[in-house]
Amino acid sequence: MSKQWLVALGVIATLALGGFALTRANDEGIVGVGARAPDARVEVLATGDTVALRDFVAGHVTLVNIWATWCGPCRAEMPSMEALYKDYAARGFKIAAVSIDEGSADPVRAFVRQYALTFDILHDPTGAIQGVYQTTGVPESFLLDRDGRIVARKIGAHDWNSAANRQLLDRLLADGS
């Protein structure tokens, strides 16, 4: 067999194995666009109740944002999240912002007051949600459709009030997805 044929067969085998690996990764629960959002137990800051995040957001187009009060980029994106929420909440849009601040929720409550946030603030003082959602840091956000599927994943601060995000929300809310 010629050297060219060996190279060609090697490329084909690599592509086949790569496709198999990607399929297995999705089967193994890689958190990404198209996957069902994983579940996590979190505390609702307003009530102190512990809830399953999946139940909390069920049936809503939801932005799950994992953040912390000490995170500068988190602070930077909160106003755009609030503006988006004010314009879309009445249409069925939710924000579930999960703070990973350790210890008491008092600093989180102070942050909410300082930024006049009106969307749902959740708290996971253990930070376990970071492992469940396979985050790389904070902030990290996951936009979910009504079926709990991830339609967008953003790492780092993001302008959630941008025209592109508004168009995406308009489509998701109109689809009834």
Task: Give a written overview of the molecule.
- The chain is α/β, with parallel strands linked by helices and 177 residues long.
- It has six helices and seven strands.
- A seven-stranded mixed sheet has the order 2-1-5-4-3-6-7.
- Strand 3, helix 3 (72-88) and strand 4 (93-99) form a beta-alpha-beta unit.
- The longest helix is centred in the N-terminal third of the chain and has 25 residues, at 3-27.
- It is globular, with a radius of gyration of 19 Å.
- Residues 6-11 and 13-27 have low confidence and may be disordered.
How are the SSEs ordered, and which strands pair?
Blueprint: H1 3-27, E1 41-44, E2 50-52, H2 53-57, E3 61-67, H3 72-88, E4 93-99, H4 106-115, E5 120-123, H5 128-132, E6 140-144, E7 150-155, H6 163-175
Parallel strand pairs: 3-4, 4-5
Antiparallel strand pairs: 1-2, 1-5, 3-6, 6-7
- Which range does the strand content fall in? 15-25%
Mean pLDDT score, rounded? Answer: 88
What is the string of helix and strand elements? HEEHEHEHEHEEH
The coarse overall form would be: globular
Number of helices: 6
State the assembly state of the protein chains: single chain
Alpha-beta classification: alpha/beta
- Helix proportion range: 40-55%
The side-by-side strand order for the widest beta sheet comes to: 2-1-5-4-3-6-7
Radius of gyration: 19 Å
Distance between the termini: 53 Å
Residue windows where pLDDT falls under 50 for at least 5 positions: 6-11, 13-27
Q: How many β-strand stretches?
A: 7
Largest sheet: 7 strands, mixed
